[in-house]
User: Fold this.
Amino acid sequence: MGLFDKIKHAFVKDKEENQTEDTTQESLEEEKADESAETEVAKSSETEEESEETTESTNFPADEQEETEEIEEQPADTQKKYEKGLSKTRKTFKDRMNELFANFRSVDEDFFEEVENTLIGADVGFDTSMRIADELREEVKIKNAKKPAAVQNTIIEKLVDLYEEEGEMEVNELNEQQNDLSVFLFVGVNGTGKTTSIGKLAHQYRQEGKKVLLAAADTFRAGAIDQLVQWGERADVEVVRGNTGSDPASVVFDAMTRAKEEQADVLLIDTAGRLQNKVNLMNELDKIKRIIKREDPTAPHEVLLVVDATTGQNAMNQAQQFKETTDVTGLVLTKLDGTAKGGIVLAIRNELHLPVKLVGLGEGIDDLEVFDPNDFVVGLFKGLLQEE
Ligand SMILES: Nc1nc2c(ncn2[C@@H]2O[C@H](COP(=O)(O)OP(=O)(O)O)[C@@H](O)[C@H]2O)c(=O)[nH]1
Ligand SMILES: [Mg+2]
Assistant:
């Protein structure tokens, strides 16, 4: 099933699930069937929101029980997490669409320009937004789409198609070594969520029964080391640390030695991200990498750049700069739950060509997911499709 069809499917399933609760809403809709397109769009988004809340509250206790019993998470739970984490983005996008169609008179040039602005506003990226609008012009012509619902669905179809097309060669899974040590180096500007993401990932691996070790190579601030130690306690994994101000490379050396001695499965390395001094940062990261390689020539197996989704274009610029500084293998996109601009994932894929590997969907220890492009897109657009 193609991605767009998958969303359509999710949309239909949602409708069926909520049919019993929706009877009042449904009859209301029938009564006002002759109302303008503007209210039609607004109303169906309300229905979707209500139903979302109901499913979430009924599923929550069951989710919690399952977590302790089952090793592998149910795919449906992951999907729910995405839907929850992306609710702000979805709502904003929905509001913008509603606005767009409230002013809708005909599909003219002004309309397409509004579509472009809407997409840029969602951090989809300038080039990508232009491309979508262009393809939309074509498609609307071919389909001779006139009704708002048909046009809205076509916008989403274009977004999904483009997103899917660019991701064909992408590897979103982390490069884990089978029966051998996996070394993941985390880089990124302060405050983006490196330490938090390491803590969450350590917890996940620990749950899987793996032996995990953390390295506190952000020795620049005392608070940074303590914070990682705290996460180590929460995740029940050990932290290799040095003193504040000590050489990060020496901490990494200690951690590599210990990981090998203790036959650890995973070593996660926290680093300081002082982008204001690019040369120093580059030297520091190079030195760390050299030490890692000397101990294990196949490592590091991932260099993960952590970026904060709420910072939009800034995150894109950081990613660009880090890409020039060191060999980044993938992105950790944090705080997707706190932004209304989840479109940044599309921009990253289309403009930076770096795979997103992990996404942060909240501050809790369980709020990190291996990036699943399909779940992401469903989480982003579910409920936005209109009945034609
Ligand atoms: N809402 C939300 N907050 C996050 C997420 N990831 C990190 N944070 C918060 O971002 C802040 C900075 O995180 P931290 O790990 O200290 O960043 P670092 O400086 O890169 O190590 C903390 O308050 C975290 O709780 C996320 O996915 N969602
Ligand atoms: Mg930190």
Notes: The chain is about 60% helix and 10% strand. The beta strands are 182-187, 212-217, 238-240, 266-271, 302-308, 330-334, 356-360, 368-370. Residues 37-69 form the longest helix (33 residues).
